[in-house]
Amino acid sequence: MASSSDSTIMTSKVVSPASEDKAIRIERANEYPHEVWFFLACLIALVAVFRLLSFVCSKMFTRNRLSSQDSEKGASYSKAVVNIRNLPLALINLYRVVAFRFTLDFGSYSLNLAEVVLTMMYMAALFTWTFINTTNVSGGKLDVSYWSNRAGVLIASQIPLITALGTKNNIISFITGVSYENLNFLHRMAAHVVFVLVWAHAGAKIAPGLEATDLKEAWLRCGILAAASLTSLCIISLRPVRARAYEFFFYTHLVLVLLVLVGAYRHTENSSPSVFSYQAYIWPSFIIWGIDRIIRVIRLVAFNHTYFGFDSGAGKALDATTELLTPKCVRLTLKRPPHFKWSPGQVAYLITPGVSSLPFESHPFTIASYDSHMSLKEITSSAASTDSDSNTTPTISYWKELVFLINVQEGFTKRLADIAARKGSVKVYLDGPYGATHNLNTYDTNVFIAGGTGVSHTLPLLLDTIEGVRNGKSICKRVTFIWCIRDPRNITWISSVLAQALSITPDSLKVAVRIFVTGSSISNSPDVPALGYESPEATPSISSVEVDSSHTPVFEKAQKTLPVENQDDILVDNPMSLSAFVNLPSVTMRQGRPSLTNLLKEEAEETRGGSMCVAVCGSRSIASAVRKGLQFPVSGPLTVLRGGANVSLHVESFGYA
């Protein structure tokens, strides 16, 4: 007869299904976030490797092109002959077109296929690791006890990633070379995916019902606070809200982010320290955010140290002059701080305590001036010797100082415009520069396209190209500068610096400046009918022109040369008249919208056998038209195999950080 003690021992060794399920759930909840991060780390490393290879190839390509450009003069390329050596470039152009120039439009949102694929990959990764292996030991599939807590752990594991993608000085940007503004899309995308996962996690807990005693638990109340704050964040971060109330978004975003982090940290206190404390996923976010702020404070002190009395005449260097060029544009000019260097196309954050609602409120603006390596004497003497007959005064500010062209809307910019109307000065503190840099020295042709204040991005690129050709660092032979404006008075924003740049352009570089006035104010003036203008209703939109562009000339039928006699109401920043500017040999001024498809096709044909870079900064319609114009067949693989241009595209769209 078996003893009772033996039966007791065997019974104690039998593990209940509930205990076995719990052990499996805890093990997988601890392991799966690590696997997700391994997947993300591999993806980041892959991007970094491609960026490194691209940098190395660019340097080698530049060296080869500089050494061989003389031997390529006079070379011809037949459209019928397929050159198999162009296969790598053909594949690269195929990837560029498919990944970045085909877009999906959702109302006010436009996503290229690369962004769509990244979003789907991230969603697939998180939801796969959430719902995989959720069959319990009894055979029940999608057991809620398996995936609900696991979803919460995966949410916590992604908070450091979302925080890092939202900072301006982050290690992901340092590793991959991708600028913070491009990573900002991934920041919003990851936050929205996690938002869905948050409510999957919360819904699994709410569905069975919550007892009144449950709400007395601090960790649960903090979890509800974090979920509600994240939900509010996702709502106010929608583009219509950011566009109409940016300052409200800015401050609310800061408060809600802190609530999410604090709430999530307290909520994860419920995890078992003996296994793994899930708070370890939350507290690094505070460090990431703190490091970003420390770096920004160091930048502020370094570039604005005159305010702190380190130099004689402290504070005067921070005074910026303001000019109301037109009712919708303010030009802000600031003396360049010591040690402050920037590249064309980069942005700086301006802190203006006298204008902003709060003392350290910052606003991003593109730097419209160029950090020239030429001396002031060289710039002025070159301009004077080349254009000795004109009555122009060199505009040094665009070459050596910091200039910002600010579009007037509501809030901060409206208050700044009121100050500029009185020609007042403001205290400005700089934070930056931020943003991607463009190496345009390797391209045979550069095409710069801007709409309105988007010229702040393309003007420095033009000045950089001209200086690069002058000092022998650039192989560029052709530049086309396209600017779409609503009012002809807007030309005076940059007319003087454009005239000066054209005057110092070397003979080896062909520059064409094409300005299109798209507004209806000119057509509505009394002298329009006599000049043969069509009515505003007859002027086709960009979209209609692009659809049927194969049967239209490069300049639309509605375009006529603009009258420039009456200029009394235009603010001109130098003695040069507007009529003198538009009469320059390289300048063409037209009424109507440009047919960007035909313009880009024409430039690509002129660059056969070489490389072409297109940089665009403007409204969504302009960016969309450029993307369509550089799809097949202009940048197709067959075109490149037959000697067509190797085309790169950089798009900077108007938006809010």
Automatic annotation (TrEMBL):
<feature type="transmembrane region" description="Helical">
    <location>
        <begin position="185"/>
        <end position="206"/>
    </location>
</feature>
<feature type="transmembrane region" description="Helical">
    <location>
        <begin position="36"/>
        <end position="57"/>
    </location>
</feature>
<comment type="similarity">
    <text>Belongs to the ferric reductase (FRE) family.</text>
</comment>
<dbReference type="GO" id="GO:0005886">
    <property type="term" value="C:plasma membrane"/>
</dbReference>
<feature type="transmembrane region" description="Helical">
    <location>
        <begin position="248"/>
        <end position="266"/>
    </location>
</feature>
<dbReference type="InterPro" id="IPR017927">
    <property type="entry name" value="FAD-bd_FR_type"/>
</dbReference>
<keyword id="KW-0812">Transmembrane</keyword>
<feature type="domain" description="FAD-binding FR-type">
    <location>
        <begin position="287"/>
        <end position="440"/>
    </location>
</feature>
<keyword id="KW-0406">Ion transport</keyword>
<keyword id="KW-1133">Transmembrane helix</keyword>
<dbReference type="GO" id="GO:0006826">
    <property type="term" value="P:iron ion transport"/>
</dbReference>
<keyword id="KW-0325">Glycoprotein</keyword>
<dbReference type="GO" id="GO:0052851">
    <property type="term" value="F:ferric-chelate reductase (NADPH) activity"/>
</dbReference>
<dbReference type="Pfam" id="PF08022">
    <property type="entry name" value="FAD_binding_8"/>
</dbReference>
<dbReference type="Pfam" id="PF08030">
    <property type="entry name" value="NAD_binding_6"/>
</dbReference>
<protein>
    <recommendedName>
        <fullName>ferric-chelate reductase (NADPH)</fullName>
        <ecNumber>1.16.1.9</ecNumber>
    </recommendedName>
</protein>
<dbReference type="Pfam" id="PF01794">
    <property type="entry name" value="Ferric_reduct"/>
</dbReference>
<keyword id="KW-0249">Electron transport</keyword>
<keyword id="KW-0813">Transport</keyword>
<keyword id="KW-1003">Cell membrane</keyword>
<dbReference type="InterPro" id="IPR013121">
    <property type="entry name" value="Fe_red_NAD-bd_6"/>
</dbReference>
<dbReference type="InterPro" id="IPR013112">
    <property type="entry name" value="FAD-bd_8"/>
</dbReference>
<feature type="transmembrane region" description="Helical">
    <location>
        <begin position="111"/>
        <end position="132"/>
    </location>
</feature>
<keyword id="KW-0560">Oxidoreductase</keyword>
<dbReference type="GO" id="GO:0015677">
    <property type="term" value="P:copper ion import"/>
</dbReference>
<dbReference type="InterPro" id="IPR039261">
    <property type="entry name" value="FNR_nucleotide-bd"/>
</dbReference>
<dbReference type="InterPro" id="IPR051410">
    <property type="entry name" value="Ferric/Cupric_Reductase"/>
</dbReference>
<feature type="transmembrane region" description="Helical">
    <location>
        <begin position="144"/>
        <end position="165"/>
    </location>
</feature>
<dbReference type="InterPro" id="IPR017938">
    <property type="entry name" value="Riboflavin_synthase-like_b-brl"/>
</dbReference>
<dbReference type="GO" id="GO:0006879">
    <property type="term" value="P:intracellular iron ion homeostasis"/>
</dbReference>
<dbReference type="InterPro" id="IPR013130">
    <property type="entry name" value="Fe3_Rdtase_TM_dom"/>
</dbReference>
<feature type="transmembrane region" description="Helical">
    <location>
        <begin position="218"/>
        <end position="236"/>
    </location>
</feature>
<keyword id="KW-0472">Membrane</keyword>
